[in-house]
Amino acid sequence: MSSSVRLLLKNRKFQFLLGIVIVIIMLGIIGPFFTRDPLKIAGRIYEPPSSQFLLGTDMAGRDVFAQLCNAIRDSLMVGFIAGLSAVGIAILIGAVLAYAGGVVDEGANVITNVFLVIPQLPILIVIASLLGKRSLIIVAILIALFNWPWMARSIRSQILSLKERKFVDLARISGKSDFVIVVKEILPNMLAYIFLVLIISISSAVVMESSISVIGLGPTEGFTLGKMLNLVIRHEAAQQGKWWYFIPPGLILVIFTGSLLMITSVIDNVLNPRTREI
Predict the structure, then answer these.
(1) What is the mean pLDDT of residues 142-148?
(2) pLDDT at 277 > cutoff 60
(3) How far apart are CA 240 and CA 234, in angstroms?
(4) Sign of the CA dihedral 30, 19, 151, 114?
(5) Could you give the CA distance from residue 155 to residue 143 in angstroms, rounded to a whole number?
């Protein structure tokens, strides 16, 4: 284990934030196996929290805690699929094609610039409205297609800087192909940065999925946090004061995405020599 990783793991703020994220992830992974069917009527309408229903019931008598666990799982599935896919596209366009240079790099840069100026959320809403059925994977892919440009631009600038370093020149002299140099020489030196980008991408994807789900254009399958908030709005749970129904999904969404973003800040502060000295 490197000294940088040990330094990060000893940081109390990082430990606290990582603990929050792990608890929420485990709630989404393990929770659905130990809770009721989120779509099954299990009690009276709008029962307050009790020992039988930890977060009460909704307008149909369904277990809110069971809904929350399943919603966390499905939202995380969308977030991770969309985040990994977007980072993969960004690495292909921002790293491999940028290293190739010339017309290839210029063409990729033009495509990136075009996607950067496209209003992501309105276009995503239009596309989602045109699709009859929207699975979790389809929504994740749609989000990834609009979430990669800023990452590609950022990774490209890093590649253009690293490709001029001496270790890359030595790799060229040794006869290694451009693809091997990018994969085995340059990208390993960017792993920390790519990890930060991945965290931000996952957080952004979860928020974007909730944004379209809350207006009824999210996945038609599954039960995400955005879909829970959509039901809250449709049935006016907030106006009726049923706090156990509308606070949990919103709170989990804010805490999870906020913790991820703060983790990126802590990682940068701890591992960046300049900020660490300050």
Answers:
(1) 89
(2) no
(3) 12
(4) positive
(5) 19
Q: Is the pLDDT of residue 272 over 70?
A: no
What are the backbone dihedrals phi and psi of residue 239, each rounded to the nearest 5 degrees, phi first?
A: -65, -30
Contact criterion met (CB below 8 Å) for 4 and 271: yes
Tell me how crowded residue 162 is: count the other CB atoms within 10 A of its CB: 18
The tens digit of pLDDT for each residue in 69-102 reads: 999 999 999 999 999 999 999 888 888 777 777 7
Q: Are 271 and 195 in contact (CB under 8 A)?
A: no
Interior/surface letters 42-63, b for 16+ CB within 10 angstroms, e for the rest: bbeebbeeeeebebbbbbeebb
Whether 245 contacts 56, CB under 8 Å: yes
Distances from the Cα of 242 to the Cα of 22, 46, 71, 227, 252, angstroms: 28, 7, 19, 17, 17
More confident residue, 66 or 133: 66
Give whole-number Cα distances, 163 to 18, 101, 190, in Å: 34, 11, 12
Tokens of 136: 């979790």
pTM, rounded to two decimals = 0.87
Q: Which two tokens stand for residue 99?
A: 């290293």
In the chain, DSSP assigns E strands to none
